[in-house]
Structure formats: C-alpha cells, structure tokens
Amino acid sequence: MKIDKPDPRIGAIVTDVDVRLLSDSDWNALYNAWLEGIVLVVRSQTLTIPEFLAYSSRFGRLKPHRVRRTRHAEYPDLTVMGIGTKKADGKVDKAIYDRGGGWHTDSPWDQDICKGTQLYGIAIPSYGGDTLFASMYDAYATLPEALKQRIRGLKAEHVYGGRGRRGNELLDPEDRNRPPAVHPIVRVHEETGRTSLYANPYHITRIQGLGDAESEALIGELTDHMIRTTAQYRHKWQVGDIVIWDNRCALHSATGGYPIEEQRIHWRVTIMQDAARQQRAA
Ligand SMILES: O=C(O)CCC(=O)C(=O)O
Ligand SMILES: [Fe+2]
Questions:
Q1: How far is the centre of ligand 1, averaged over its atoms, from the C-alpha of 101 (Å)?
Q2: Nearest Cα residue to atom 7 of ligand 1
Q3: Which of 110, 242, 266 to mutate to test ligand 1, by most ligand atoms within 8 A of the CB atom?
Q4: In the chain, which residue ranges form alpha helices assigned H by DSSP?
C-alpha cells in the first residue's frame, strides 16, 4: 500500500491496495491518513455493494440518507447519486444534476452530525464533475484574531437547503419542514483535538443571539473566509475511486460542468460518530 500526500494540509491518495484485503496495520495507516488528510482517496477498487458497505462500516455506523427517493431499494444505507439527470421530457433534472453543488458539509441539518461521507465512482463523465474540498482547520487557523473572539461560543441553526430550502424537492413532503439543528460555529474535532470552523454556507439559516442583519453579515464574512482558504483539494474522478471526507472539519462542493448526455454515478454512504463521543466534545 502506498500513501501520497501532495499537500500536507489536505488530501491523501492511496494506491496499490485492495480494501477487501487490508491487514490491520494497513487499516490503521489508512484511517490515520484520513484523519490527518481530511480527504482520503483510494484508487482502482472493484467492489460489490455489500463489499462497499462492509468497508464503509469500518469507519463507523452507517445511516440511511434523509432523501428517501435516492436510497437503494434493497440497501437503504446506500444512496445512489446521479440517476435520473434527464427527465422523461428530455429536460435536465437540476435537483439531481446539481446535487452537492455549492460549498457545504453533509447533514448539519441533523442534530447528530455525521463523521464522514464516502463516495465510490461507478460511472464518470469524460470531462467536468470534479469535487472540491476545503480544510476548515485551516479556515479557523487563519481567521483574524478579532473574528475568532467575536464567534467564540456562538451557535448556528441549519435546515436542509438553508435559507432558500434549496434542493428541498428531493425530500419527501413530511421531511421538508423539520426544525433546525443547532451546532457551535467553532468545534473541536473528537478524534484529532484540532479546532475548525463549522458554519455551513449552504444549510445555515441564522446565528443564534444576533439580529437578522448581523447574522447575515457574519455568515457572509465567515463564508468568504472559509471558501478562500488555499488548503483545498480538487478530486478528478476515475471509475473505481473511493473518496471519504471528514465532515467535522471540511467543506466540499460538486463542481458540475459535465456533459448531460454522459453518466456520473456514485454510490454513497453517510457515516456517523456515536453519540457518546459527540457529547464528550460538547
Ligand atoms: O457529487 C459530488 O461530487 C459530491 C456530492 C455531495 O456533496 C455528497 O455526496 O455529499
Ligand atoms: Fe455533500
């Protein structure tokens, strides 16, 4: 097994390994490379659904996604991304095509935030469709001191799709108006102990304890800072890539821009950290 880290701040690329046959020491090296690298890419895998789920479960408990209509019928822990980009009338289904576009973390609309998300490349278009990742450790570390002081102790509310409820049409009607989940804007990572910014630009609705205008202004200021970090990794997909990212300390964004007549399909799982760990961190 070979692990490359082109940028020490973000990204680890693993080759020469079959994740079905990992030794204990390779598993430990891989897990640590993920924690340090935030985004871990394992190239050239050939997995069945049960094999992908079994490997994913090594990172933590899997949770079916709130969007029910893209869950796999037989394996609800698995979401299939990218099916149905073209509607029956030939028009683009923007909710499917644009899914994951715009900087965000996954499931901040859930009170238990997820630990990681893992995608497996099944069909990859000939161009476009990259995924971007940004380190929120770096975003926090490079905040001006005055801003660090200002956000200390603040908490923010998040709902699916944020202020515009974007992508809400993917949800079943009974899931569309759930109450917001509340999370601290500054968080300490349960496993690395490092501090990061957690102010999801996409799903955030407001910062508690501030007036509307002040909350909007602060969200804008934090967003500008978060997406400007240079600690970014751009993933160019190949069929057989497994990519897992740490949702506790990174933003990501699908970049779109791939030909509509080509397929871009991924298997996807949401990986949770157990409640006890999260409570300890709170
Ligand atoms: O399709 C992508 O590149 C990313 C999708 C995404 O945001 C997700 O699966 O959470
Ligand atoms: Fe996402």
A1: 7
A2: 100
A3: 266
A4: 24-37, 49-57, 94-97, 136-141, 145-151, 212-228, 275-281
Residue tagged 């897992």 (tokens): 244
Pocket of ligand 1 from Cβ distances under 6 Å = 81, 100, 106, 117, 119, 131, 252, 254, 268
What is the per-residue pLDDT across 252-271, written as a single tens digit (0 to 9) for each?
999 999 999 999 999 999 99
Nearest to residue 203, comparing CAs of 63, 66, 82? 66
How far apart CA 170 and CA 265 sit, in angstroms, is: 17
Cα 234 → chain centroid: 14
Angle CA 118–126–120, to nearest 5: 15
pLDDT digits (tens, 9 = 90+) for 208-219: 999 999 999 999
Q: Which amino acid is at 122?
A: I
Q: How far, in Å, is the centroid of ligand 1 from the Cα of 149?
A: 32
Q: How far is the CA of 10 from the centre of ligand 1 (A)?
A: 17
Break the chain into its structural domains and give their ranges.
2-281
Residue 129 three-state SS: coil
Q: In the CATH scheme, what is the code of domain 2-281? A: 3.60.130.10
pTM for the predicted model, two decimal places: 0.95
- Measured CA to CA in angstroms, residue 256 lies from 41, 94, 125, 169, 270 at distances of 20, 11, 10, 19, 21
Looking at every residue in the chain, the average pLDDT score rounds to 94
Residue among 252, 264, 266 to mutate when testing ligand 1 (max atoms within 8 A of CB)? 252
For a ligand 1 pocket test, name from 71, 85, 99 the mutation site with the most ligand atoms within 8 angstroms of its C-beta. 99
95, burial (CB in 10 Å: exposed 0-12, middle 13-18, buried 19+): middle
